[in-house]
Structures are given as C-alpha cells and as structure tokens.
Design goal:
hydrolase activity, six-stranded mixed beta sheet, 5 helices, Fumarylacetoacetase_C_sf, alpha+beta, five-stranded mixed beta sheet, Fumarylacetoacetate hydrolase, domain 2, 33% strand
C-alpha cells in the first residue's frame, strides 16, 4: 500500500491584537460591486449580485510576496474589503447578517485579466483567470467586536506609491449585509468563510518588482511585493 498523504492543514489568517488565528474554509468573491468599476469593465447597470470562488489555498497571508503567475501577460490588482464569518447560516435575513461576521480585512483579488477576458469571450468559467495559486492576498483580520461594522470609509490601492484605485465603502452597489443575505440563499455560509466584496475603479496591471499597498479606513492595510515566479517568498 502506498503512503497516504498527510491531512491538509487549512490556511489561516492572523487576528490583529490576538495570538489566535482564523482558519479559512472557503473564499467567495462578488463581481462588479462598485458602479465606477462596472463602467470601466464595459457595463452600466445595477444587476443582482453574482459570485465566483477562489480555493482556500489561494490565500496569501500578509507578509508574503506575490509570485507573478504563469501563462499570463496581464495580471491586475483589485483591492477589496474582506468579510470573515464565524457563524453558520442559510437564508439569513438582512437584519441578522452582521451576527455572522467575525471581522474584516484588506484583500487583493489578483486577476489574470487576459485569461479572464478570453474565458468571457468563449462563455467559459473564470477559474483560470481568478483561482490560481496565491490569487487572494489578505491582511490580518480585525474583529468586528473591536472595530464595529464599517459601512463607509476610504478604500485605496497604490503601486510603488502611485495611487491607482480609490473609492469609499459607501459606494458599494450591494452593502455587506445585503451580499451575505443574498449569498446565503444559494450556499450555507459556514465559520471560516471569507467574502471578498468587490473593488472600486482603477484596476490595472502589475509587474515583478512592484510594491502594492492597499488600505481601508478604520480597518487596516496590506502590503504585498510582486516577485518573479521563481523567486516566491
């Protein structure tokens, strides 16, 4: 009998001000949730939320470098508010949604834009453009019990100190409680789930050597260095 591989250890995120970590189960992402980003992607309508997923092991906790992925010439940054859940729920009423939130973080939905665009044109799934290795950088989590539930505040991303993206959480088409309520109609949300809540306008390409810095007012920030694939840190 061949050896059985060791059990997979779930990825986790540090928790600000605490020694404990937050084990991550699944990563849900919502598309086109800021009106200016909708327009820059060639759309102009308020549609119902739609979601895609990244594997949990695409998580890249803060302090680690982002290796430029293979088979692409056009990787984009997308800074996002990340919501971490600690309570199971299905068909969650909007007024009850916050009860399921453990905390918040700053995330980057890294995207192989050329491969995503090709998939869109051919009517294919987005995984090749969105779900690759290290595609979900994320900061430490900030517990809602300590910072509350921000519904407004500046969200921004700079590349090598040049500001590329800027917006406000209040500009979300669908607020966090609406997103969780809607998503829970299709999935039983579980402790350890993360929800990336969409990005403001200004998405653009990154190159090896770039330093990315995302920040969200009242929550925190995330710094990530882009490295050649062979120089993963």
């Amino acid at each position: 009998m061949t050896d059985i591989p060791a059990a997979w250890a779930p990825p986790s995120l540090p928790i600000a001000g605490h020694d404990a970590t937050f084990p991550v189960r699944r990563i849900f992402c919502v598309g086109r949730n800021y009106s200016e980003h909708v327009r820059e992607m060639g759309e102009d309508s308020r549609e119902l939320p739609f979601f895609f997923m990244k594997p949990a092991d695409s998580l890249l906790p803060e302090g680690r470098n982002f290796p430029y992925p293979s088979e692409t010439q056009n990787v984009h940054h997308e800074v996002e508010l990340v919501v971490a859940l600690h309570k199971e729920g299905r068909n969650i009423p909007r007024p009850k949604a916050r009860e399921h939130i453990f905390g918040y973080g700053v995330g980057l939905d890294m995207t192989r834009r050329d491969l995503q665009g090709e998939a869109k044109q051919k009517g294919r799934p987005w995984e090749v453009g969105k779900a690759f290795d290290h595609a979900a950088p994320c900061s430490r989590l900030y517990p809602a019990a300590e910072i509350g539930h921000p519904t407004e505040g500046r969200i921004a991303l700079s590349v090598d100190d040049e500001e590329r993206q800027v917006g406000d959480l209040s500009q979300m088409t669908w607020a966090v409680d609406e997103l969780l309520s809607y998503l829970s109609r299709y999935f039983t949300l579980l402790p350890g789930d993360l929800v990336y809540t969409g990005t403001p306008a200004g998405v653009g390409p990154v190159l090896p050597g770039n330093r990315l810095h995302g920040t969200i007012e009242r929550i925190g920030d995330l710094t990530c260095q882009v490295m050649p694939a062979a120089a993963q840190g």
